[in-house]
Amino acid sequence: MLDWLRQDSELPFHVELTLQVIIVTIAIIIIFTLILSFIVIGLRIKNIQKEKHWQKLERKWERLIFDIMANELEAEQIWATVHPRERLYFLQYLLRFARRVRGEEFNTIKSMAKPYLYLLESRVKKGPPELRARAVQTLGVLGFPDYIQPVIEALDDPAPIVSMLAARALARKEYPDNVRFILPIIHRFENWSMSYLSALLALFGEGASSYLRATLADPTQDNMVRTACSDALKKLMDLKSADVANEVINSEKDPELLASLLRLLRSTGRKEHLDTVRSMIDSPEFIVRANAYSTLGFLGVETDRKCLIKGIEDNNTWVAIHAARALMKLGGQTQLEKIALSNRSRSHLVQQVISEG
Question: In angstroms, rounded to a whole number, what is the distance separating the alpha carbons of residues 33 and 28?
Answer without folding.
Answer: 8
